[in-house]
Amino acid sequence: MFRSASRISIGKLLTRRIHHQTNGLIIPLKNVRNTLQNQQKRHILFKMGNETPARVVGYYVVFPVIPEETVENNCFMYNIAKSEDWPKLATAEPREMYEGTVRMLMDYGATVMEHMEHLATLPAEDRKFENVVDPLLTEEYEVNFAFQTLVLKMLTDWPDCNRKLFDADLHHIKIMCARDQMEKLTNKDFQEAIKQLYESKDGLSEWQSRLLEWYLLEIKASGLDKHDDKTRKVLGSWSKFVDEYRSKYITGVMSTNDQQTFVVTDPKVIKDAPPHVLQKLAVDEQNWETGPWRGRMTPHTIYPFMQYCGDRQLRATAWEKWTSKAGFDHDFYNNSINIEELRHNNEGLAKTLGYTSVAEHRLANKMAASPETVRGFINALTRRIRPVVIDRMESWSAWAARTELITGELQAHDMPYVCRKEAEHHYDVNPLDLMNHFPFWPTFQNIIGVVGHIFNLEFKDITEKGYEKAHADAKIYAVGDKFSGQHYGRLYIDPYDRQNKRGGWNVMLARPESKERGLDKIVYFIGSAIAPTSSGPSLLHHQQLQQLLFHFGRSVQLLLSQSPYRDIAIPWSPFYASDWDAADMFPTFLQMFVTKPNLLATISSPHLLTNQPLTEEHANSVALTISRASLWDTYRTLFWSDFDLSIYEMEDRKQKFWLDMYKQMYEEYFPFKRAKNDYQPCSFTPIFALQPHMSMYYRKLWAEMLALDIHETFDEEDNEVQTGERLKTTILNRGSGDVAKELFKRFQGRNPSVGAICDHYAPPLTIQEGMEMSENERR
Fold first, then answer.
1. Angle of helix 371-403 relative to helix 631-649, nearest 10 degrees?
2. Burial, 269: exposed, middle or buried (Cβ in 10 Å; 0-12, 13-18, 19+)?
3. What are the boundaries of the signal sequence (predicted)?
4. Taking the CA of residue 514 as centre, how many other CA atoms within 13 Å lie in the half-sphere pointing to its CB?
5. Could you tell me the pLDDT band of residue 52, with boundaries at 50, 70 and 90?
């Protein structure tokens, strides 16, 4: 494990790295043979930063900066190389952590190159998992641990610096890490070796076989197995234009973020907003309680603004600007042509890979498996939820006319605000007062008590044992099995938001268990709860309670996975080979505790002011309020899921222009007229800006379907410990060791049912008399 950096071939490293790190410098070159002293025989491509001169009389090479960090002079690298028990979160300097991680990534890049050269000479009969894959996994383990720990430090305790510089540093090291770890899959010798191992199965463990299967699926779905020049050239052309128009689309969105802001100075206008929303909207974060507050043209602020701003005219203006963002109203940043180019080039890429449509390509390895399955799922939900929305419009309109003096029909800009307020009024729930039942640490202790009971787990606070922490607020828990005594790993949780903390709620797998090194699993959990003050503890709004439950669910999911390999610990997004439409099943299962009155009451605490417990009756009202208030957001999610699938399931995108489809579907879904300048797909990044996410917008509803189906099983079996143990052994312990559909069937004994999610959003009592759901629809 202890490895000196001096063993790497710097010449090979420079050859591989130089075209990545010159980044547009002016480099008039014909070749670099002599510079690399005949060691190198690889071709290097340089992007010309200026017009090629008529006559090249010389050349120069700009070498990348290689950090001088080694295990001898860098305590962060030493800690990892020596397999020490706990990372240097406090004693390692930020510079040591960043430059040390960069150096480890560069070392790993050189290792990959050398190993690929070795595989080219390794006879087929000598190939084994231990000499084909293990040499890379050994170093990947250390590199990933360093990278995840660096990200934890950067997000929670990094020195003050320019935001753009920080974002650039974080972005570049993320790209560097992802690129280096995927590079092995592009090598033909590696592909042939793992294919041979997978087909023979000789000496492979179950986990090793699954990892090789995952590699092969990713290779096929990415087109890395196409080696003939003609196909490679076609794929390269499609990919080039996809990247180009994706970049243009994102530029159009980002460039219009600050063109409009919507300022609130009167606290009465935003009086219902909880503290975490006020912090998001505050012009000055230090004065979030007194304002002023503003909504910007970003999802991070515009959706909370629409939900809590009581000024209807301001909401109308904000929504108009938001839905026209990067649309036809903008001459230079009009994304319409970029949408069509993205559709065209992604369609060409998918067909070159052998798929009939973009949707078929993206869904091939997902739990849903095909566009037809997703279409059936969306149709089943639409048939149940749309009548409820139409019926509920009357309640929303009546409430708005009575309390908000909104005359006439409700409009799109009213819905987030009115739906929330009407639900709270309908069940007489005050969310701000409800926060007094949910102080952070008592709530967290109650959650681990409930989860521990259901899944036979023990969470032991070991914070005082002297482990290093990036911040004093953090706590550390050892997690094990109550009955068998098996140690699952340790959970590091940093719960509160603070000035130098970046990002929001997040969970990371720091490292899997490594028996060879004698190391256990570590999971990092980053929270974003309001920090306690001298006058009181941190209190959770029900939105933050849902975030806590979801991300704690992810933490438990990672801890219980028995996979020895990170790539198949859980179905990771955004890999083509992973069925990550099911990845959020268990986190959503815990998140749904807020809609179960008995569970909600169990994780609550006595009211801080009155010392009264949250009664089951009050908990029931809260659960119904949360479900009722979420109906409109769920319906919009259903609309976008349908639009996403409809755009990408076409075998020929020329069948319908994106705007024509948007207009048609908008009219089908919504009871009000679409605004003339509503071009929201032009800025809807989840559908058009992220390549692997195309056709995947349904996944939130899919995860809810799986989670609520499991809740229904718990209710029917009425033995939470027995059912929880079965869920743990059949699904959670298996991680991504098998396809999600098969794991779910092992737990349920059947395929998923849409019945529970339909009943959740459209309770049978609310369905119009005589309307029945067919047996096929429930299935």
1. 150
2. middle
3. none
4. 22
5. low
Give the Cα-Cα-Cα angle 432, 588, 412 (nearest 5 degrees): 60
Q: Give the sheet arrangement for strand 522-529, strand by strand.
A: 457-461, 475-481, 487-496, 522-529, 506-511
The answer to whether 131 and 194 are in contact (CB under 8 A) is: no
Alpha carbon distance 701, 705 (integer Å): 6
3-state DSSP helix/strand/coil percent for the chain, to nearest 5?
Answer: 60, 5, 35
Residues 342 and 675 sit within 8 Å (Cβ to Cβ): no
SS3 490: strand
| Angstrom distance (rounded) from CA 319 to CA 677 | 11
pLDDT for residue 746: 96
Structure confidence at residue 59 (pLDDT)? 66
pLDDT (average), residues 103-115 = 94
Is 524 in contact with 152 (CB distance < 8 Å)? yes
pLDDT of residue 40: 39
Mean pLDDT of 84-97: 95
Using CB atoms within 10 Å of the CB of residue 18, give its burial: 0 to 12 exposed, 13 to 18 middle, 19+ buried: buried
| 65-84 mean pLDDT | 92
- DSSP of 406-427, one letter per residue? --S---GGGHHHHHHHHHHHHT
**Who's near 14: CB < 8 A, 6+ residues apart?**
36, 63, 64
Q: What pLDDT digit, counting tens, does each position of 547-568 carry?
A: 999 999 999 999 999 999 999 9
> What would the mean pLDDT of 416-427 be, rounded to a whole number?
95
**What's the pLDDT at 61?**
64
Which candidate, 44, 43, 88, 38, places its Cα nearest to that of 64?
Answer: 44
Q: Report d(CA 674, CA 666) in Å as an integer.
A: 7
SS (H, E, C) 638-679: HHHHHHHHHHHHCCCHHHCCHHHHHHHHHHHHCCCCCCCCCC
The tens digit of pLDDT for each residue in 503-528 reads: 899 999 999 999 999 999 999 999 99
Residue 734 has pLDDT above 90, yes or no: yes
Residue 767 has pLDDT above 80, yes or no: no
In angstroms, rounded to a whole number, what is the distance separating the alpha carbons of residues 281 and 261?
11
Alpha carbon 300 to its chain's center: 15
pLDDT by residue (tens digit) across 594-604?
999 999 999 99
Q: Give the contacts of 666 (CB within 8 A, at least 6 positions apart).
A: 639, 674, 678
DSSP track, 437-468: G-BHHHHHHHHHHHHHHHHTEEEEE-GGG---
Contact 112, 183 (CB under 8 A): yes
Distance CA 721, CA 726 (A): 9
Domain boundaries, the chain: 75-204
- pLDDT bin (cut points 50, 70, 90) of residue 582 is very high
Q: What is the DSSP letter of 539?
A: B
pLDDT band at 64 (very low <50, low <70, confident <90, very high): low
Token output for 428: 């007489």
- CA-to-CA distance for 556 and 74, rounded, in angstroms? 33
Max alpha carbon distance in the chain (Å)? 86
Average per-residue pLDDT for the chain: 89
3-class DSSP state of 294: strand
To which H or E segment does residue 479 belong?
Answer: strand 475-481
10 Å Cβ neighbour count for 309?
A: 24
What single-letter DSSP state applies at residue 157? S
Q: Count of alpha carbons within 13 Å of 357, Cβ hemisphere only?
A: 20
| pTM of the full structure | 0.90
- pLDDT value, residue 51: 61
